Model the fold of this input.
Amino acid sequence: MTRSRTVRRELERERKKLVEAKWKLAMLQEGYRRDRPIAVDSASQIEPHVRGMTCPGCDVSYRVLEHRATPEGRVVRAQCPQCGRSPEIHFVLRSRLSS
Done:
């Protein structure tokens, strides 16, 4: 007979593995890496875009903590209100791509 505590711990370990796998997959998508920014037409589109994105692990919408300009483009530090992870989301303005 398997103890319920053992089953809960096994399920929690599996859940954590799944969340980590989702994050690894998300890091391959646009925006999560500096070399793969999300292209937008205007800086005013960036924060609404980030708020429309969801945490890969929790599927909860991000909060915007910080939005800053860099020589490469724009970077937003977001945070998941549920798990607390704070990824940096990278953007580039399309006008900079054509010049």
